[in-house]
Amino acid sequence: MQISNEDYQQFKPLLFSISYRMLGSIVEAEDIVHETFLKAYQIDEKQIDNKKAYLCKMVTNRCLDELKSVRRRREKYVGPWNPVPLLLEKTDDSDPSDIVLKKEGLSIAFLRMMEHLAPDERAVLLLKEVFDYSYSEIANIIEKKEENCRKILSRAKQKISRIEDESLNYERNKYTTNLFIQAFQMHNTAALLELLTENVTLYSDGGGKVNAAIRPIVSRANVMAFLFGIFKKVPKDFYFEVKNVNYQPAIVIHINGKVQSILSFYISNDKINEIYITMNPDKLPIL
């Protein structure tokens, strides 16, 4: 297949967007996109009617194969597993190459919920709900009948139905995040109780590389106790900033000049339902 530089620039964001959502890993997604383009060069152009569709099929099938080994690795993972945060610079649509990344299904909450889905459920849900492919296109990509794809989507949506309530309004969620920061800094328990749902759950991902809770922490009282406990141990020279992570506001904490952790949130109706603390150094950006 002839891949021009224009083709590469046009299709790379889409292919990365599919593979990152499928795998929740930046490095693995980039590797699969790279391998897909290398493999595409070896394919006879005469076999291909639509470059975009063919590349999407290639990258999706590579992700489905990769998920088999990924699942085995994550079964051995120490403590909760959070997706690798994607740190971005903008929240607007000024860069056309980024538009494909800005659709729904990119938040940490959504990606984490994807872990509850089987590989084919994950693929069908993304292709239909996020990328708006037709059932005939999806059937061609994953090589299943259209009717099967409809059933797979129904099953997938039942498993992650509650995530549909997630707010994706950046500015509104940033306001909630700032209220959380202010309440936390002032030890304002009443304000925190207003912001957190009764069964708020915190997932602390250290991957066995740093100290972290090895089980999810549930309830407002337990989550607040855990967070205040961490705050007491933080050195005085730490600082934080609210950054655009997966196109949602997140708290990026710096210690000794390095990113020490990233706090992301699942916010619904201006309430924090889940908190994801990613501390595994292998998942943190180097700024």
TrEMBL record:
UniProt keyword annotations, A-Z: Coiled coil
Domain spans labelled RNA polymerase sigma-70 region: 8-72
Residue ranges of every copy of the RNA polymerase sigma factor 70 region 4 type domain listed in the record: 109-160
Keyword RNA-binding: no
InterPro entries according to UniProt: ECF_Sigma-70_Domain, RNA_pol_sigma-70_dom, RNA_pol_sigma-70_ECF, RNA_pol_sigma70_r2, RNA_pol_sigma70_r4_t2
Coiled coil start-end: 146-173
Pfam families xrefs: Sigma70_r2, Sigma70_r4_2
PANTHER family: ECF RNA POLYMERASE SIGMA FACTOR SIGJ, SIGMA 19 FACTOR
NCBIfam families recorded: PRK09636.1, sigma70-ECF, SigX4
Protein's recorded name: RNA polymerase sigma-70 factor
Lineage: Bacteria, Bacillati, Bacillota, Bacilli, Bacillales
